[in-house]
Amino acid sequence: MKEGAVYLFYATLGLILLLLSLCVLRLILFVAIFLLSGARVYFWLYPNLVVEEQFWASFVPLYSLEWRKSSAPKTTVCRKIIEGLEKNDLGLQSGEDLAVIIHQVSFYRPIDIEKVDVNYYNFDNPTAFDFKLIVQVLSDLRSGKEVDVPIYDQKTYTRSSETCRVCPKKIILFEGILCFDCKELRDLFHLKIFVDCDNDTRLAKRVLRDLKKRNRDLDSILKQYIDFVKPAYDDFIQPSKKYADIIIPRGADNLVAIDFIIQYIKEHCKQPVANSLDTKRLLR
Asked: So where does this one cross the membrane (predicted)?
C-alpha cells in the first residue's frame, strides 16, 4: 500500500515537472525563433524625457531623453535625475517641488474599440499621438503657463473627461516615444538624449511586463513586436537617432551618464537668463 502511494506521488511530481519543462521550452523556442527571424529587440529612451528647466520667469530650456522602444524604464531615469538634482542647491523655496514629469502616453489619440481592433492597431506609429497638442502643452509650460494634460485610459483607449493640471516647475521632464520624429517638437528641446539598452534585456522586460501587468499571452506579445514595434524602430526611431545630442548605453543602469546629465542641468540652472542655449560650451 505504501509502495503504491509513493509510486503515485513520484509519478505526479514527474508529470508536474514535465509540464513545467514544456512551458519553459516553449518560451525559449518562441524567443529563439523571434530573434533568429531578424526581429531585434530595441530598448530606447525616446526623445522625450524633456527635462525642461524654467529659468526664473519664462525661459525654459528642454532636455529631451529618448528611449529605445516603449518598454524602456523611462520613468526610472527621470526619477534618478530628479533624485540627483534634489541633492543639489538649486535655489528652491521651502516646500517647492523641483520637477514635474509629463508622459507622452497621455497624448495618445483616442480610438473607437468598436470600429478598431486594438490587436491590429499600431501604437508605435507617429500618427497614434497628438503631436500638435504636445507642442502646445510644452510651449505653454516654457512660457510659464499652467497646462491641462490629458488623462489617457489604456484599458478603454480613450481620454478621460478630466485632465491633470500641471504647473511650471524649475525642471520639467517629458518622457515617451517618437519625439525626435516631429521637427516642431524636436526644436523645443535644448538637450536630446538617446539611451541605448541591451537588446535581450529590452525583450525580456517587454515580455514580462505584458505577461504580468497586461495579462497577454506570449504569442500576441511577439506578434505585436514583429508586426509593429520592430518596424516602428526601423522606420522612425533609428533614423531619428541622428538628432540626439548625447547617446547613452545601458539605459538606467548607466549611473555615470545620468550623473553627467544631472551636472549639466545643475550648471545650466546657474546660468543667467538667456534666449538660447549654448550646448557646445556646456558640453566641453
From this structure: 6-36
Taking the C-alpha atoms of residue 60 and residue 48, their distance in angstroms, rounded to an integer, is: 15
- β-pairing, 189-197 vs 246-249, is parallel
163: its cell numbers: 485632465
Which 3-state string (H, E, C) describes 170-209? CEEEEECCCCCCCHHHHCCEEEEEEEEECHHHHHHHHHHH
Q: Cell for 259?
A: 550623473
d(CA 26, CA 111): 34
The mean per-residue pLDDT over the stretch 165-192 comes to 85
- pTM equals 0.69
| Strand (E) or helix (H) holding 33 | helix 2-36
C-alpha 276, offset from chain centre: 27
Contacts of 27 (CB under 8 A, 6+ apart): 218
| CA pair distance 51, 84, nearest whole angstrom | 13
Q: How confident is the model at residue 83 (pLDDT cuts 50, 70, 90)?
A: confident
First vs last Cα of the chain: how many Å apart?
82
8 A C-beta contact, residue 269 and residue 89: no
Looking up cell 541605448 gives: 196
What's at 72, amino acid-wise?
A: A
pLDDT, tens digit, 9 for 90 and up, residues 3-20: 666 566 666 767 777 767
| Of 284 and 264, the one with more pLDDT | 264
Closest by Cα among 280, 269, 239 to 68? 239
- Distance between CA atoms of residues 97 and 47, nearest Å: 24
Q: What pLDDT digit, counting tens, does each position of 24-80 carry?
A: 666 665 555 444 443 333 233 333 333 333 322 223 445 565 554 444 556 778 888
Helix, strand or coil, per DSSP, at residue 167? coil
Q: How far is CA 273 from the centre of its chain?
A: 30
Query: How far apart (Å, rounded) are the C-alpha atoms in residues 19 and 26?
Result: 11
